[in-house]
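Dear colleagues,

As part of the handover before I leave the project, I'm documenting each prediction I ran so the next person doesn't have to rerun anything. This entry is a single chain, and its sequence is reproduced below.
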Amino acid sequence: MRPLSISWQIRGTMRKIIAALFDVDGTLLNTAEFVYQAFVHTFQTHGLPGRSTDEIAAVMGKPLEEMYRHFSASASEDVSEICETHRSFQAENLHLSVPFANTQETLRRLKDAGVKIAAVTTRSRRTSIKTLEMSCIIDYFDAIISGEDVNYPKPHPEPLFKALQQLEVEPEKAVMIGDTEADILAGKNAKVMTIGVSYGFHGSHIAGSKPDFIVEDIVDIIPILLPDLKSNRSIHFP
């Protein structure tokens, strides 16, 4: 499926994309060290076995509580104190989160074209807002949905539906961009276009989620959503 204009071809009809919903960690912001160091600190603080970066990356996109229950091998364990240690470390080390090289330029182009923009993250609101502020991109967002704002996180469609409600945009006119399976499945469950990025936590494995498009750099979404503009990079069509 290839973009023919500023619209997305669905079931033989052309629908204009006017809203872009972005995951934050691994999509807009390079938070690898922000995430990995928080896990290392928390594992050590609570005497938990260490985990490799690959093991941590594999569960990214899930709520923090679910990730720590996974690592503790007990679905019923109370991990609230463990998660607070993790979140406190991140709140004290916001400098470890930085935007990807083309994040701001991509958001600027979309905003200039009249596209509404939302951040949809499973991370806590307190650190999400601060890292977006420190990255000097928060003013591009018309809505920000964090983990505390919903009852059911991604891959459930609730976070996307809430963002679309605030943007006053119908699902068929929106796109979800993310780096994890949860992002892509949430997009599919909400019936929006999906774009997977291969530079985030799930890397090239994002192809297994079967997004509508896969890009190697965030700026690569520009010729998909705004085909009159170019990114001079490659785009993959699964």
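The CA atoms of residues 65 and 79 lie 6 Å apart. The domain at 7-30+99-236 is CATH 3.40.50.1000 (Rossmann fold).

All the best with the project,
I.
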